[in-house]
Write a structure and sequence with these properties.
Aminopeptidase; globular; about 160 residues; single chain; about 30% helix; alpha+beta
Length: about 160
């Protein structure tokens, strides 16, 4: 994936609804950010088209630099942030925080959960600062055997 162009553009990403038309850019971001843990393109296509799925993209200068996917569970009482990623060159600018807040709002659920690698210190710091607390550990959750931390934010 080419880096989004232009350091002279707006410093704050615009959050918009993603559609199937964004499949290529989101697939590229997913692969760049998650490598072997990337969702297959067919699952991303489903996430971008199934009614009720939350699908957001962060754009700078007309190019996607991040995305979030979420869904509601347990009778709409629990929301999951299923995937959240920001292009490595555009991290530490508040984009992930914007995507997370927009996804939580769009979910509209009382509780929100997500899962991250135990080694992902940057994401852990973001989620803790947003009010998430660890509620579980899923052993050997990732393909390489690394555990996944389950975190939840509740009112």
């Amino acid at each position: 994936m080419d880096s989004p162009k232009g350091p002279d553009g707006p410093s704050q990403a615009a959050i918009r609804t993603a559609t199937w038309r964004d499949l290529r850019s989101i697939t590229e971001l997913e692969s760049l950010c998650f490598g072997k843990d990337s969702w297959p393109w067919l699952e991303l296509l489903a996430a971008l088209t199934i009614p009720g799925t939350i699908r957001l993209k962060a754009e700078l200068n007309g190019q996607a630099v991040g995305f979030a996917i979420g869904d509601r569970r347990s009778g709409n009482e629990l929301g999951w942030v299923a995937s959240l990623a920001v292009h490595p060159e555009y991290r530490r600018r508040g984009t992930a925080r914007l995507l997370l807040a927009a996804c939580e709002e769009a979910l509209g659920t009382r509780r929100v959960r997500l899962t991250l690698r135990t080694s992902n210190e940057a994401a852990l710091a973001l989620y803790r600062s947003a009010g998430y607390q660890q509620v579980d550990v899923w052993r050997k959750y990732y393909r390489d055997g690394e555990d996944g931390l389950v975190m939840e934010r509740a009112p």
